[in-house]
Amino acid sequence: MAFLPYGRQVIEDDDIAAVAEALRSDYLTTGPKVAEFEAAFAEAVGASHTVACNSGTAALHLAMLAIGAGQGDVAIVPSITFLATANAARYCGAEVVFADVDPITGLMTEASLMDAFSKAVSRGKLKAILPVHLAGRMVDTGPMAALVRQFGGHVIADACHALGSTLNGLTPAQSAEMACYSFHPVKTMTTGEGGMVTMPDSGAAERAKLYRSHGMIRGGDVAHYDMVDLGFNFRIPDILCALGLSQLKKLDRFVARRREIARLYDAKLPGLSPHLQTCPSRADEALHLYTVLIDFKALGHERTAVMEQLRQAGIGTQVHYIPVHLQPYYAGRYGVERLPGAEAWHEKTLSLPIFPAMSDGDVDRVVEALEKALRP
After folding, report:
1. pLDDT tens track for 179-190
2. How far apart are CA 141 and CA 177, in angstroms?
3. What is the Cα–Cα distance from 322 to 190, expressed in whole angstroms?
4. Please, what is the Cα angle at 303 between 297 and 305, to 5 degrees?
5. How far apart are CA 302 and CA 374, in angstroms?
6. Distance in angstroms (rounded) separating the CA atoms of residues 83 and 287
7. Three-class SS of residue 351?
8. From start to end of 46-87, where are the E strands?
9. Is pLDDT above 80 for 236?
10. Taken in order 136, 138, 139, 142, is the CA torsion positive or negative?
11. Active-site annotation, residues
C-alpha cells in the first residue's frame, strides 16, 4: 500500500509538457514566463502588483526590504510559524517580538497582538506585524492593520499556507498591505520551489524587483548596469514559472478537493477519542494542513511513538510548529519567555495527510490508523 505523506504535489502530463516547452525555449532562467506568471497570479488572488521569487522565504525577505526595515525597527511575529517569518526581519537587522497564539487555532489574536505591542516599544520602532495564516486558516487582519497604522507600521501577511483561502470574501492579498506566498511542493500548488509577494503599488513592487536581482538597474546602454543598493539573487527561473502557470489553471480543482478531504475528516474524527480535538474547517478555507489537537499526556502516549506507529502503517504526519521563541537562536537573543498558547498548541498539535490526490478511502485509512494508535 502506498505511503501517504502529510502533503504532496500533484504533477500531471500537462505540467510536464509546460516545463518541457520552456526547456526548449531560449530562456531557462529569468525570461518572459516570469512576467506571465506574475500577471496570472495577480489576477487569481486579486492583487495590484506581484513579484515572483525563488521561495516563500525570499518573498518574506523582499517584503521586509520593500518597507525599508532595518536596525532600530521591530517586527511582531506569532511564535507558531515556520522559522522564515521571524528570520525575514532579522535578515534586515530588525528585532523580533513574538506574539502568543490561540491554543485551538494556532493563530495570532488581537489580544495577543496587544500584549506583544507592549514588549515591542522597549525594543525599537514598530515597523511591521506579520500575521500568519496558519494551515490555511486566515487571521482577520483588518483590526490589526488599523492598530499598526497608528505607529506608521505595515502589515505583511505570511500567506504561504493560504493560497485559495478567503475571509469575508477577501484573499490574503486583498486583506493585507502585502502578502507572501510559497509554491513548495506540499503547498496548494507548486513551482517546485518558489514564492510570490503581492504589493500595494508599483513603487513597492519596483523596490522588491530591485532587491530580487542584486540591487541592480540597467540604463539605456544594454552593456551598462548600476548597482544602486545591496540586493540578492532571489530570481525564479522561467522553467519554474512555466510549471506555475500550468498549476495555476488547476487551482480551483486543487482547492475544491482539499475542502472535500477536510470535510471528510471533520465528519469522521470527532468521537474518535475523548482526548482528540478538531477545529472544523470553514467553507472558505483551503487547508494546506489538516491539524488535530491530541492530549498525549492524558492518553499516556508519547507523540513520537504515535507518529512512528502511524508511519509503520504507511501514514506520514508532522508537527507544525515548534514555537519559534523557544528556538536556541531567539531564546539566546531575547531570553526565554512564556507564551502559553503557543506552547499548548505545540504540545498537542499533529498534522494529518491532506493533498488533492488522496482518495476518500485514504481518509478512512488515516482515521482507522489514528484510532488504533490512540488506544490506551
Report:
1. 999 999 999 999
2. 10
3. 25
4. 115
5. 10
6. 20
7. strand
8. 49-53, 73-78
9. yes
10. positive
11. 187
> From CA 52, how far away is CA 64, in angstroms rounded?
15
Contacts of 243 (CB under 8 A, 6+ apart): 15, 18, 19, 190, 191, 192
How much is the pTM? 0.97
CA-based nearest residue to 59, from 235, 192, 216 = 235
Hey, what's the torsion of the CAs at 261, 264, 265, 271, to 10 degrees? 180
Give the contacts of 32 (CB within 8 A, at least 6 positions apart): 238
8-state DSSP, 103: T
**Ordered domains of the chain (ranges, CATH):** 13-248 (3.40.640.10), 251-373 (3.90.1150.10)
Separation of alpha carbons 15 and 224, rounded Å: 37
Euclidean distance between the first and the last CA atom of the chain, given in angstroms as a whole number? 26
Q: Is the confidence at residue 349, as pLDDT, over 90?
A: yes
| Residue type at 44 in one-letter notation | A
Dmax over Cα atoms in the chain, in whole Å? 74
d(CA 247, CA 244): 5
Q: What is the dihedral angle through the alpha carbons of 20, 3, 315, 324, rounded to the nearest 10 degrees?
A: -40
Tens-place pLDDT, residues 282-306 = 999 999 999 999 999 999 999 999 9
Do residues 53 and 235 touch, judged by C-beta distance below 8 A?
yes
Q: How many CA atoms lie within 13 A of 30 on its CB side?
A: 12
Task: Give the Cβ contact number of residue 142 at 10 Å.
Answer: 14
Q: pLDDT tens, 60-107? A: 999 999 999 999 999 999 999 999 999 999 999 999 999 999 999 999
With a cut of 80, say whether residue 222 has pLDDT above it: no
Written as one letter, the residue type at 111 is A
Task: State the average pLDDT over residues 161-190.
Answer: 98
Q: Is the per-residue pLDDT at 326 higher than 80?
A: yes
pLDDT at 367: 98
Average pLDDT over residues 270-274: 93
